[in-house]
Amino acid sequence: MLTRAPRPSAVARTRDALAAQGFGILTEIDVTATLKTKLDHDMEDYVILGACNPPLAHRALDTDRSVGLLLPCNVVVRRDRDHTVVQALDPGTMVALTELDALRPVAEEVTRRLDAAFTSLTAKGN
């Protein structure tokens, strides 16, 4: 999803859109600030939000405890030239990597909710 919103606004809007779909943010990593502090490296705005929907995480973990390696759903908000990009990995990857068909309904529900969150960001305009 592309927007012309500045990064702080895009991060806040992304947090709100995810919250509306039942996701909380467990972690927020400001990669730009971290690389500047640790390596004195300048890069474009780049934030990773560790989003989690507790009921869906619970269902996935009940299926297979090792799926915790793939949780939470990371959502990236980053600058690309004059746009802000909001991205998430396809939750179906969880099924593909684990080869557990029992995770498919959870992955499909996470996909539906992420799609709805991203659609709401687009609907609110650039």
Low-confidence stretches: none
Overall pLDDT metric: 92
Rg: 15 Å
Helix/strand structural class: alpha+beta
Order of helices and strands: EHEHEHEEHH
**Strand order of the main beta sheet, please?**
1-5-4-3-2
User: How far apart, in Å, are the first and last alpha carbons?
Assistant: 10 Å
Number of helices: 5
Biggest pleated sheet: 5 strands, antiparallel
Topology:
Blueprint: E1 2-3, H1 7-20, E2 24-30, H2 31-39, E3 46-52, H3 54-63, E4 73-80, E5 83-88, H4 92-98, H5 104-123
Helix pairs in contact: 1-5, 4-5
What's the gist of this structure?
This protein has 126 residues and is an alpha+beta fold. Helix content is 48%, strand content 24%.
Question: Would you give an account of this structure?
Answer:
With 126 residues, the protein is α+β, with helices and mostly antiparallel strands. It is 48% helix and 24% strand. It is built from 5 helices and 5 strands, in the order E-H-E-H-E-H-E-E-H-H. A 5-stranded antiparallel β-sheet has the order 1-5-4-3-2. Strand 4 and strand 5 (83-88) form a beta hairpin. The longest helix is centred in the C-terminal third of the chain and has 20 residues, at 104-123. The protein starts with a strand and ends with a helix.
Short key terms for the protein model shown above:
126 residues, alpha+beta, five-stranded antiparallel sheet, 5 strands
